[in-house]
Amino acid sequence: MKKICIVTGTRAEWGLLSGLAQALKKRDDVTLQIIATNTHLSPKFGNTYKEIEAAGFRIDYKVPMPVESDTPNGTVTAMSQCMAGMANAFDVLRPDMLIILGDRYEMLSTASAALIYRIPIAHISGGATSEGAYDEAIRHSITKMSHIHLTETEEYRQRVIQLGEDPKRVFNTGSIGVYNIKHVDFMPKEELEAELKTEIPEKSLLITFHPATLDSISPRVQCENLLNALDEHSDYKVIFTYPNSDTDGRVIIEMIEDYAIRNPNRVAVFQSLGMRRYLSTLHYVAAEVGNSSSGIVEVPSIGIPTLNIGIRQRGRIAAESVFTCGVTAGEISKGLDTVLSTRMRELARTVKNPYEQPDTINKMVKAICDTPLDGITLKKFYDLPK
User: Fold this and answer.
1) Is residue 386 part of a domain?
2) What pLDDT score was predicted for residue 247?
């Protein structure tokens, strides 16, 4: 019986991992463990650990990592608290394997602690690039501390192998987020509007805007430009979800909350929609806007366009329905015109999503459960053939 532990720190991440958690929970040869940390435990971000419990899962350990400020010092201090907390969690739970998704700084702390504890890691979404954020370096660092790799595309698989990982343990599974889209029970529009307590007219935009942590243009300036561009499209309803807890994230939260106060009939802001409400909302809006990986990886499978703003996601493979613009108000406004055009909306309905595969969860479960763990933490660097 393998003790397989999923570590999750944000509502978006859990939304992606929940389907995999369900599949592992059903197996007779797996004892599923869950560790919750970071914004899951924050009232400011909605205490989203409750969503995990409401879905019928038990959280086996909570690792607080309060981010006292959205400065570099606050972020690094929180990371150190996370690493210490993970050490305590591993002492208690003694997992045989961890599952980590992506590139968040709390996952770097988690992987670092697991490395010292010699706990094998199955890493989801390695090999991708997002050059405008420090997530890029974190993702590749986690790859080097991991032992089983579940990538979203073949190009990303080859990049993980290029980093020296054994090809036999690098699996192109497709995107878990796209799999969720194809298997979630979407909410009828009336039910969704009733739960959100806001209308979603046809002319609506769903926006998630995160700090681009390596950009020389500040998040405050970029967010102000976005809001100014939205003023030029005042015939559209705007639905914001909170950014993540990266450096300067609170600046964006304050700005969008203030924008909602100034535009109460046109703007709604949510700490977290949760996976089902988020994906359902995407079905009823005209486009997704911001700089979240979801807009590139998942939204094309909904059949609507994405406006990707700035450099945060630079380097990611993207479908033709994703349009990238600069960060000035004029560039964002022109970008909105592009994605809301008839041509782009028609293209989005038929576009092929490069992240989509039909059996992603089965591929992940097979790789996680069937890969032998004996001796797996003693890695040999794989050199590319000359």
Assistant:
1) no
2) 77
